[in-house]
## 1
Amino acid sequence: MSEANPPKSAPLSAATTSTSEAADGAHKSADAPASTDKTRKPRVAVLFGGRSSEHAVSCVTAAGVLSAIDRCKYDVVPIGIAKSGQWVLAGGDPSSWSLSTGRLPEVEAAERTVSLAEIGGSHQLMVTAPNEVPVELGSVDVVFPLLHGPFGEDGTIQGLLELSDTRYVGAGVLASAVGMDKHYMKVIFADAGLDVGPYIAVTDRQWTNDPQAVRDSVAALGFPVFVKPARAGSSMGISKVDSLDQLDAAIVQARQHDLKLVIEAGITGREIECAVLEGRNGSGPRTSMPGEVVVTDLDHAFYDFTAKYVQDNAASLSCPADLPADAAQRVRELAAMAFEAVGAEGLSRVDFFYTPAGELIINEINTMPGFTPKSMYPQMWAASGLDYPELIDELLQLALNRKTGLR
Ligand SMILES: Nc1ncnc2c1ncn2[C@@H]1O[C@H](COP(=O)(O)OP(=O)(O)O)[C@@H](O)[C@H]1O
Ligand SMILES: [Mg+2]
């Protein structure tokens, strides 16, 4: 595939770093936008798949982005991450990653792998295979990590890219890690003055050493509760628990995804979401018109994985949400506050419960929200005047124009 075989030994971009620059230490940063070489298009590595339980969702997102990214403006290198963690050059046909094939897509591990390698003081993508001379993929100007869940959306890939001074779309290390952890995001939201529902965090040690204390704390929250892995997504491992006798089974299920849990009091309210984009040239975050998720199939107790991705028509997304103007405005202000509270960059989707009493209780921030053309984040921007290809372009431009290093 053409995008899988870009020219070897392409010129180094401004995103890479010489050894002498590296000597500047922690304050090293590159102010100049990436790809100062005007003789070629910026090269974008699209990373997808990954080690988390949201692997398939990431592949579906990649199908959408690979179909819509402007190939006249960008040179695209699709890189799949297998569930084993191995990076492989991925086929260029986006439809192979969509859900329309009737199965959940998956990146297969392969002998020929891709890695970030240091060559002459700079970092480049290399393709290696047993008993073969490594092949340089050339410099990459920007990485688009379309990864959901742990080892992708949680600061780990971001840390790898920071170490190699490679620009990337979206939140940095800290914001990604906080946005992945349903416990710490609440700590930060509460500190920023956002309304957070009642919850407890349960560590592996607490559950293992004293499960009865955990059960007592949950009973004090009142039922129903939502039992969640602290660091997962796409509703994986989440159960609604209506009584104490269902609790242990829900905890066992959530612990299959993460040994750390968050258990929340159930909140009655409409699910209202807002898309946030980093501002341009130092201005504050931009917010979309809010949207609403309505679970229409009553077989689903909440917005679960099947309602999100598998069963058509189990849930409807409407944008703009039918809200009083002052509530819609408040959602936008709170979404921008949440974005700034965690120090997000690039993009985030911020989700709220809008209670019958008119309160807006924050549920979560997603620093790499679902991003297929049908997903809420792009739909909210489309309703606000920015269509899917324009949104992809805007995210890449934000990333290409940002500093590397501490910023
Ligand atoms: N405290 C809660 N009260 C009521 N419903 C909840 C609560 N927490 C989660 N839900 C339901 O479960 C869904 C998934 O939970 P969420 O925390 O958003 O996890 P994920 O990160 O997997 O999307 C929500 O969209 C909502 O339908
Ligand atoms: Mg959610």
## 2
Amino acid sequence: MSEGKTPKEGVMSFKNIPITNANRLINHGPTILITSKLGEKINVMTAAWQMPVSFKPMLVAVSIGHERFSHKLILESREFVINIPHLEMIKEVLCCGTHSGKNTDKFKVCKLTPVKAQEVGAPLIEECIGNIECRLYSHHEAGDHTIFVGEVVAASVKESIFDGYLRVDLEQAKTLHHLGGKAFCHPDGIDLA
Ligand SMILES: Cc1cc2nc3c(=O)[nH]c(=O)nc-3n(C[C@H](O)[C@H](O)[C@H](O)COP(=O)(O)O)c2cc1C
């Protein structure tokens, strides 16, 4: 237990925010494009809510609203791909986050190129800088979203953009981090090594 300062009483130095905006404080992981495929239908959606969850096995999680077309495709096909877009793709990222594949071919409308993945039916996106192919490991209900946990079965990157430690060369590409609405930031990069 800390024997240092006791917590201050009295005037709150924090301002309350709506509980519904609390996620924005931890939103800053890279915004991703999730691809899925069921039968002949392929789809892509934007997601900011994602995280790594296990090394052995290697698991990653994404949180997807029940209403999303991608929700149905992932639940039924039990596969998905996490694609990593970059700053120059901000228009495409917003496009994939504001149209539904229920009634749109988003690859056409948002001008993205699907390419065959190595291990799963869902496509990779040519314009992205990296991808993680996943088979559904488990899924968990969380309010109006489902947390899909994927076991990583393949992963690849645009080689020239990443170094041996999988650090992005920020001169070549910057990942996009969602702040809310149409606001994003991108990393500056600090390397203390
Ligand atoms: C920047 C951004 C981040 C988003 N993050 C998520 C998310 O993490 N989870 C989610 O379910 N929807 C998220 N959305 C909304 C979906 O991308 C959007 O509802 C999309 O139309 C769903 O496509 P679909 O119906 O083809 O699956 C986000 C949208 C934007 C623009």
## 3
Amino acid sequence: MNVVLKVEDIGISFGSNHVLKSMSFELGENEVLGVIGPNGAGKTVMLNILTGILRPTKGKITFLGEDVTQKTITERCRMGFGRTFQVPRPFEKMTVFENVIVGGVYGDSLREKEAKKRALTITEMIGLGDKRDWFAGKLGLLDRKRLEIARALASNPKILLFDEVAGGLTESEVSDILDIVRMVKRQGVSVVWIEHVLKTMREGTDRVLCLAEGRDVVCGLPEEVMQSKEVHEVYLGAEEE
Ligand SMILES: Nc1ncnc2c1ncn2[C@@H]1O[C@H](COP(=O)(O)OP(=O)(O)OP(=O)(O)O)[C@@H](O)[C@H]1O
Ligand SMILES: [Mg+2]
């Protein structure tokens, strides 16, 4: 496996809340790595550390062979980190098209002309071609999620970090998201995909990592991880609480 992203022994605490104690994993080239774990396990915190929003108290992050642990959000974005937010936050008073243009201009330093060209392609590809001129604030949940991914793609990322892009959607809408993730993968982008919907993890990922108690509890092929005694204990423990 050609490693794109390497996370080694990452830790972070908020006061006495030791959210991540020791987290390690590798993301391969053109791989979709699913991340599961109970509510409050620290999945979003991990994503915020990867993108530079939060600084870990220990550990190292290497991206394409370069140590990025001390790099800023902007630097990482320019190097090829893209992400979506758990709660989509588009510019509501801007159109779908304008929102995607912003991704290209600020995320990849494109001139307006190039950003527009890219936004045309991406909105078409993601299934928002007929809603380009809609205000983002008028979109339903599935289209907001689509827009989140489109905005992230506009910065031409090498890796994409998805925070529950399928959360809150119906089963047929989840299929649409699965198709989009497959398309992203076909374009050669590697993906870290946090999700509670286990069906999507089973069908849409190459490997799955379970995060619990501040650690990477188990990582492997989706079916193996889902059936592992570690995951069983983590979720059974959560049910008994
Ligand atoms: N900026 C912050 N300051 C202090 N505590 C924080 C901060 N961000 C997250 N936490 C705490 O870290 C813990 C993990 O939160 P996180 O949002 O990463 O969980 P999660 O695994 O994403 O959960 P969910 O599945 O519900 O999205 C929680 O106890 C949360 O309160
Ligand atoms: Mg979260």
